[in-house]
Design goal:
The complex is a heterotrimer of chains A (about 750), B (about 150) and C (about 450). Chain A is α+β, with helices and mostly antiparallel strands. Chain A has 18 helices and 24 strands. In chain A, helix 3 runs parallel beside helix 4 and helix 16 crosses helix 17. The two termini of chain C are about 15 Å apart. Classes of the chains: A alpha+beta (about 750), B alpha+beta (about 150), C mainly alpha (about 450). The structure holds FE2/S2 (inorganic) cluster (FES) (2 copies). One FE2/S2 (inorganic) cluster sits at the interface of chains B and A.
């Protein structure tokens, strides 16, 4: 179902009344609900059939089927908690099938911190409905009134009579649609929601029980590898395959246009052969990239689509007593999964291609692979299998596609493919480089009269979305699939402009995006999309204004922050940090920042203390405090893991990371040329989690990125008295900034 | 034939001369514990213990293990149950994706064997060459210290 | 034993030692140092809480400058409880328990007894101490600093830890003979400031020359284990725990001259981008200095810089040296082609398989052509690092660890590698005795 259709249906359902009869007549699920029924929560609206979500099994277990998948964030456990709670069974009874294109409801992509807001409420309502059905069945069976029944771990009792869910399975009819009317359990009765239930995937991961696709080794498996061109735009002009075919272990060499791959008996043999293949091939090379040092200028000067998203600056706004402006740059950042992407694919005799993949979007990726291979719809069966943390659209989908391209050449044989470190580092779709220009008109007190924010960015979302042109190898096969036009996202999620609109209330605010469609380097969704750069710009700029006004940055923010929950998050962060009692020692500084992710999701404030060594420019984060409001907390431990993890990752981006490239290729090929934060650089992190029982689940995974970066930038400025506006804040740059001051 | 002790048992593997110890575990013995992360000795995801020392199996030739004793993540289990260190990682929920976990545990185990009462600084120093992209560092340190305390 | 070292190896020492021993006795008879010193009466252990908190704090800082815990702590033991075996050319000496335990530690030591140990190298009972405890440096500390150090140690938690027996070769096992050693090598008394120099220099000199005891490792020792204190040999480099210790005087072989900033970076962060990482026995020193007042460590850097007598290279020449060094990096477009000579080529292959993934153009590592290691007089440090890796302190030199490759490289590999890197990255003459060193150092860890 397309996005538009689904929005249309919700509008229809809430906007009209009293067509009960119609719903029975219409075959399509478009009108599946009674129009006066409440709107179904989350993804239940798209998949109202209860049987799509939950199965009660005679073996005393419950199967939970969801379309959102585990990306290392613990959300599958949290969703299972919600299911167990609302179904009133022990948590241990829940078995989860996540992201199987044939078994799970299609919940689209697992991204944007959307598992908790969309999947959890759907499961919760579905479970409540099933509980109600079970209760009614039991009442019938026991011959008592339904409201006299008590339920505990799958047993329904009235006095000394009882019946279990497992007894009722035979009569249980779940091929019905949710009504949206079954009441949820009162929060006061919650026993599992809000508890630190241990994640279901961790024991296997810590003891060596296979769980990652990288660890799977089906019987008879062969190993694949891809030989990439020397530059993005290279075209293969010639290659001698015979010498490669003679290499040890090589069973097949595949050429399809400019796509080159090998199948070998061992993974290392496949890699070696692919390296040799790359070297042996002749290519027409195009060298037209701006290079990492030229990227900021390139973004500002390349033709772009301009869009004004907001303009509340009144024509008769008072004249400015002074103005201030600043320009910030964020380079390309890598997802940088610790495990390079992998997949296993097998072509079945019936022409079905089964692929085990850690894609975040199994349905859309399966469709893109069907297009790539020219298979009819439904022929690719994608099964989500966990991979290394991805933090967005990494090469998971490319690996799935490449495994399928190779598996097609050896029907019946499972082909496993894992990229090399360089293969992932050089070819993954990075988080887009961005320039942010912010300016403000100020009155005589330094208060803001008008605020203007210009966002310059290449795209952020190039997920496969059912189109082979967005799979890396789709560019190189013959005939190549063109990259479909990439659009910038609009409200409320946005993509480049995500969090481009301030969370503050200013007398006037203007936000303009300059969307550059050209993509010198491959880019796609990376934790937070535009939010990291936009929040960094906004939260640094307001800090600059506070300094200019001679105000405390915390107090200055509170002048414009009107939302009570956000104010609470900010002040609690500041209190935990000891903002008011902070003693500035030589070469140290403090910084604070806040944002509400996507302007409607989780709220996170971060405060840090840094020490800067002028001698060598080294920035050491001495401690960090984060406060977060993710709505009603299902699993506090999971939330703290995500906030702390996001914070540390953002420290790494902010202090160390930049994808380096020259005119033709990416130079950051491994961890030596793209260093990330290590144990010695990770500060102690203190968390303040604010629970809001009864409020919607907001999803947490991406909300710390922007505030962390900005807090660090602000703390560095506080420490050295110079504002640095170009990420990353490496020792060389910090030293130069100090010396230039 | 390469013969060595794996988790206490003698194993023999028929593999090419230049095969890495990591590839023997993944491609031949189908063990899940050790991961390929970089193949360059840069990340530690492939760490195993060779005669008690933490080594990076991605750049260790399998030949180097001949006649020696290799311990992998699986080999730490005690009668199928998680070892104290593994359990400490579970108790601290010291994983996000968990891909780095096996290398962390093996490196930490080698540390604990050498120094059963490490300071926090010892733990960070020992793990400094192991990379985690998810930002689980502080939990991992706590897990190692917890295992040491519980010993 | 690496060639060119000043100590005679233990195996050769006995004959020489016997001869020396006789002359020592003769010396002792005529010396100001008497062979038998009086016992200083024990005191009732002080209440650890009775010392002035500021004094204790000051003492803790000084203990860090002196890196006391490094020797007086077992690798996995309680801090200051002693017990660490310290190999010397004369046998193995075990460090003692510095905690105020009355039986096994220094709980019954009065401040006078402590000061006598530090200044004269005599314990409370009156026994001469071996100069592996560097009282020849500590003697220069001020009374006030010794008092602070005493207060700090006495306020530690007492730990019961019996010191192990020393295992020394005769005649070095005869303590009274040490009186003779002192005649020759102990110049007692606190250091006086040099009015010709500024305060920072004087502070640095004081720390380096007294509690810091830098010369204990950075100066060569003579046959009797005495570190050179004056003349061209002072700070001319030495040896410690199987590592070659670089000179801190004009003989420094660093390709890019050190300066105050780079020395301070090295001492505090354990790393400098023009020189490399602190490893081996220097690592615990950095662990401690990292915690110190930056002003004090910078003062030490000022003094060490003075010791080195460095010129101030022009910025342009600095930049050129750096660029030339980088151009030698593996994979650099201007890098030299691989050597033809087969031994060197074999080393290049070892390098390619084991080192080049990280030590290459565009990577975060220090260009190898700038590292002190490759310019050292012998291959000991290179071998140690390749075999055992670098585990820098977790704070200070972030991101500079290196896994050891003892399993991956054979002795032949290492010999070839040493020849190749010395040839490619330096203009120095090739190393000799590498194979013997490899064999010796493989056992170290
Ligand atoms: S895979 Fe071996 S260190 Fe990264
Ligand atoms: S938990 Fe994901 S890499 Fe460490």
């Amino acid at each position: 179902m397309t996005v538009n259709l689904s929005i249309g249906r919700r509008a229809f359902l809430t906007g009209s009344a009293g067509f009960l009869a119609v719903s029975f007549l219409m075959p399509s699920d478009l009108f599946a609900q009674t129009a006066d029924a409440p709107e179904l929560p989350g993804d239940l609206a798209d998949h109202p059939m209860l049987s799509a979500w939950i199965k009660i099994n005679a073996d005393q277990t419950v199967t939970l089927m969801i379309g959102k998948v585990e990306l290392g964030q613990g959300s599958v456990t949290a969703v299972a908690q919600v299911c167990a709670e609302e179904l009133v069974v022990d948590f241990g009874r829940i078995k989860v099938i996540a992201g199987d294109t044939r078994l799970s409801p299609d919940e689209g992509t697992t991204a944007g911190s959307q598992s908790m807001p969309n999947c959890a409420p759907a499961v919760q309502q579905a479970a409540a409905e099933i509980r109600q059905i079970l209760r009614n069945l039991a009442a019938e069976k026991l011959g008592v009134a339904a409201d006299g029944l008590t339920m505990a771990d799958g047993t329904i009792s009235a006095g000394d009579k009882s019946v279990t869910y497992w007894d009722l399975v035979a009569d249980l009819q779940l091929e019905v649609e949710a009504t949206g009317t079954a009441p949820l359990l009162p929060i006061a009765e919650h026993k599992i929601i809000g508890k630190n239930v241990q994640r279901i995937d961790i024991p296997a991961k810590m003891t060596g029980v296979p769980i990652f696709v990288q660890e799977m080794a089906p019987e008879g498996v062969r190993y694949g590898a891809v030989a990439r061109p020397p530059t993005y735009k290279a075209v293969l002009t010639g290659v001698d395959l015979a010498s490669i075919e003679a290499m040890p272990g090589v069973e097949k060499v595949v050429r399809n246009g400019s796509f080159l791959g090998v199948i070998a008996a061992r993974q290392e043999q496949a890699w070696a052969a692919a390296n040799a293949l790359s070297a042996a091939a002749q290519w027409d090379v195009v060298s037209d990239l701006p290079g990492h040092d030229g990227m900021a200028e390139w973004l500002k000067t390349t033709a772009s689509e301009e869009k004004e998203w907001l303009n509340t600056i009144a024509a008769d706004a008072p004249a400015a007593a002074s103005t201030h402006e600043a320009e910030y740059y964020r380079p390309y950042h890598m997802h940088g999964s610790i495990g390079p992407s992998a997949a296993i694919a097998q072509m079945g005799e019936d022409g079905t291609m089964t692929v085990w993949t850690h894609s975040q979007s199994v349905w859309a990726t399966a469709a893109a692979i069907e297009m790539l291979l020219g298979l009819e719809e439904g022929k690719v069966h994608a099964i989500h299998t966990e991979g290394s943390g991805c933090y967005g659209h990494n090469m998971a989908d490319d690996a799935a596609a490449d495994a399928c391209l190779l598996a097609r050449e050896m029907p019946g044989t499972p082909i496993k493919l894992q990229y090399t470190r360089a293969g992932e580092h050089q070819w993954e779709p990075y988080g887009s480089a961005m320039v942010n220009k912010v300016s403000a008109n100020l009155d005589a007190n330094g208060d803001i009269i008008g605020w203007e924010h210009h966002v310059y960015s290449t795209p952020h979302g190039t997920r496969p979305g059912g189109n082979a042109g967005r799979l890396l190898s789709g560019r190189y096969v013959d005939p190549p699939f063109p990259m479909p036009e990439i659009k910038d996202g609009g409200p409320p999620n946005f993509s480049s402009t995500r969090n481009g609109l301030a969370n503050y209330v200013f007398p006037g605010e203007k936000v303009v995006t300059h969307f550059v469609k050209d993509m010198p380097l491959r880019v796609s969704s990376t934790r937070g999309l535009g939010a990291y750069a936009n929040v960094m710009a906004i939260e640094q700029f307001i800090d600059e204004l506070a300094v200019k006004a001679g105000a405390d940055p915390l107090e200055y923010r509170l002048r414009y922050l009107k939302d009570d929950r956000m104010r609470d998050v900010l002040t609690r962060c500041a209190d935990a940090f000891g903002w008011g009692t902070f003693e500035k020692k030589r070469n140290t500084g403090r910084g604070i920042a806040i944002a509400r992710y996507k302007n409607y999701a989780a709220m996170t404030a971060v405060a840090v203390e840094v020490q800067v060594t002028p001698r060598n420019g080294l920035v050491r984060v001495l401690r960090a405090v984060a406060a977060n409001d993710s709505g009603h907390m299902v699993n506090p431990n999971g939330i703290s893991n995500q906030i702390e993890g996001g914070l540390i990752q953002s420290l790494s981006w902010t202090l160390k990371e930049e994808v380096k490239f020259d005119a033709s290729r990416v130079l950051s090929t491994d961890w030596a040329s793209y260093p990330i934060l290590t144990f010695g650089e990770v500060p102690p992190v203190e968390l303040v989690l604010i629970d809001r029982p009864g409020e919607p689940y907001l999803g947490t995974g991406e909300s710390a990125q922007g505030p962390t970066g900005a807090a660090v930038a602000n703390a560095i400025a506080d420490a050295i008295g110079v504002r640095m506006r170009r990420v990353p804040f490496t020792p060389d740059r910090v030293k130069a900034a100090i010396e230039g001051a | 034939m390469l013969t060595f002790k794996l988790n206490g048992q003698e194993v023999s593997v028929d593999a090419p001369d230049d095969a890495s110890l990591l590839s023997i575990q993944t491609d031949d013995l189908h063990l899940a514990g050790q991961k390929y992360g970089c193949g360059l000795s840069q990340c530690g995801a492939c760490t195993v213990m060779l005669d008690g020392d933490a080594v990076r199996s991605c750049q260790t030739k399998a030949q180097a293990a001949v006649g020696r004793s290799v311990t992998t993540l699986e080999g730490l289990r005690e009668n199928g149950a998680p070892s104290r260190l593994q359990q400490a990682f579970i108790d601290e929920q010291a994983a996000q994706c968990g891909y780095c976990g096996s290398g962390m545990i093996m490196t930490a185990q080698a540390l604990l064997d050498r120094n059963p009462t490490p300071s926090e600084s010892d733990v960070r120093a020992a793990l400094n060459g192991n990379l985690c992209r998810c930002g689980t560092h502080n939990r991992i340190v706590r897990a190692v210290l917890r295992a040491a305390e519980e010993a | 034993m690496p060639p060119g070292r000043d100590h005679p190896p233990l195996s050769r020492s006995t004959i020489i030692a016997a001869g020396l021993g006789l002359s020592l006795v003769a010396l002792a008879a005529t010396s100001a140092f008497v062979a038998y010193e009086p016992q200083i009466a024990g005191i009732a252990p002080a209440d650890p809480g009775s010392f002035n908190a500021n004094l204790v704090k000051q003492g803790q800082i000084l203990a860090g400058i002196g890196n006391c815990a490094a020797c007086h702590t077992l690798p996995d033991g309680e801090p200051y409880a002693g017990g660490r075996a310290l190999p010397t050319p004369f046998g193995v000496i075990h460090s003692t328990n510095l905690t105020p335990d009355p039986e096994t530690g220094i709980g019954t030591w009065s401040e006078a007894a402590f000061a006598r140990a530090m200044r004269h190298g005599v314990d409370r009972e009156g026994r001469h101490l071996y100069p592996v405890f560097p009282y020849d440096y500590f003697t220069r500390a001020s009374d006030a600093d010794l008092g602070a150090l005493y207060a700090y140690l006495m306020s530690l938690d007492p730990i019961v830890a019996e010191a192990a027996q020393n295992d020394l070769v005769f005649p070095f096992s005869v303590r009274p003979l040490l009186a003779g050693w002192k005649v020759l090598y102990l110049d007692e008394g606190a250091l006086q400031p040099d009015p010709a120099q500024d305060e920072e220099w004087n502070r640095g000199r004081y720390l380096v020359e007294s509690l810091g005891h830098c010369g204990a490792c950075h100066s060569p020792r003579n046959a009797l284990g005495a570190a050179a204190k004056t003349g061209p040999k002072a700070y001319a480099g030495g040896e410690a725990e199987g590592w070659s210790v670089p000179p801190l005087n004009g003989a420094s072989s660093a390709p890019l001259e050190w300066n105050v900033d780079s020395i301070a970076n090295y001492l505090i962060e354990g790393w400098d981008s023009d020189h490399g990482v602190a490893a081996g026995p220097m690592r615990p020193v950095v662990d401690d200095l990292h915690e110190q007042s930056e002003d004090d460590v910078v003062a030490m850097a000022v003094y060490v810089d003075w010791l080195m007598g460095n010129d101030r290279p022009e910025n342009a020449s600095l930049a050129a040296t750096r660029a030339n060094a980088k151009a030698l990096d593996w994979g650099h477009p201007d890098a030299p082609i691989l050597p033809e000579e087969s031994a060197l080529l074999a080393g290049a292959r070892v390098f390619e398989a084991n080192c080049a993934n990280c030590h290459k153009a565009g990577a975060k590592s220090v260009p190898l052509a700038l590292t002190t290691v490759l310019h050292a007089p012998d291959a000991a440090n290179l071998i140690n690092i390749v075999l055992h890796g670098i585990q820098p302190p977790p704070v200070g030199s972030p991101d500079r660890s290196m896994p050891g490759r003892a399993v991956q490289v054979s002795d032949d590999d290492l010999v070839a590698l040493a020849a190749f890197v010395r040839d490619r990255f330096t203009d120095a003459t090739s190393w000799t005795g590498v194979r013997e060193l490899v064999q010796e150092l493989r056992g170290h860890n």
